[in-house]
Write a structure and sequence with these properties.
binds pyridoxal-5'-phosphate, 384 residues, Aspartate Aminotransferase, domain 2, Aspartate Aminotransferase, domain 1, alpha/beta, globular, 14% strand, single chain
Amino acid sequence: MQPRDLSDHVAYEAGRGIEEVARELDRDPSEFVKLASNENPHGPSPAAAVAIREAASSVSSYPKAAHADLTEAVAERWDVADEQVWLANGGDGALDYLHRAMLEPDDAVLVPEPGFAYYGMSARYHHGDVREYELSKADDFAQDADAVLEHYDADRDRIVFLTSPHNPSGSTIPLEEVERLADETSDETLIVVDEAYGEFADRDSALALIEGRDGFDARDDVAILRTFSKAYGLAGVRLGYAVVPEEWADAYARVNTPFAASEIACRAGLAAIDDEEHVERTVETARDARAYMREYIDAHVWDSEGNFVLVEVGDAAAVAEEMQRRGVIVRDCSSFGLPGCIRITCGTEEETERAVETCNAVLADLDVEPDAGDATTEAEVPDT
Ligand SMILES: *Cc1c(COP(=O)(O)O)cnc(C)c1O
């Protein structure tokens, strides 16, 4: 037999890992730094590492108490009701739940291009169609309501995804524009603001729109997405969540996987959420690193509010490959539809300096001419 027709589905292309690259090049893993997946260069919070070790003896039980405790801790952090917190197996898992809760077959989601591949992948798993709005490279990936509304179809688009800060460019959208977008789209269209990099940004969370804070009116058509993978350094345990309006928060019980986050993930999250110092240190490192890269890389570097920067290098595949050969693994953004760009994650001070030095040396040696053309004029690469 065969699975159903999966020809519309594509595999996720993750950033490359050190072990994988070292094996391929027959080199020692210790020679490499990986700045390709926006992970935390300081690792997990030490308290979370202890909690993970301590959780080892209790993994024979389903994580009922831990799940409830973490839900409560996250709800308290945002000052919302417990029901509004939809814990999941990574932010990716929360995307699945939102799609399960919202999409009827053939409804569409409207996603940014370039953008995060999993929005579309998950929508397709849930029998949805994927439509795109363009963030223009020539316009520095600027985000506002009009950029989305130009492509919005009120009859079809059930969810609109905003990524703020945006991966891979680092651009953000002001809350006033999110509000205007929510106002001008149908009451039946949910605006999901993906704040996977929210901790790194000088912007308030779109939670203000859900709860009616800071002068905004409360509304039931906005949700936010958050993750423990980036600022909290827990990418390996898979933990994220959505915060949704109270009006339909009870849908979670009907769509979630039983025990959506593991005992280990919940215990790690509980410890991490209390370790503010670790997050502050991480954010400070990222801010210093992105400023440093912007100043010292000999190519155009976009202003970023995330823990990464996008760099215009001309031939991304060639530059990423050569940087990798010299020990620095970065993300070739061809798979994002940006074959002229690489994305470099903010590392420790030492890692970031090495990345800049290596990038500049490679640019000089390859003598590539970064071209400032618009993304739409470049080769069509599958959106993965
Ligand atoms: C990393 C990331 C996520 C979530 O990742 P998880 O590891 O599944 O929590 C969501 N959106 C964007 C844009 C991301 O970069």
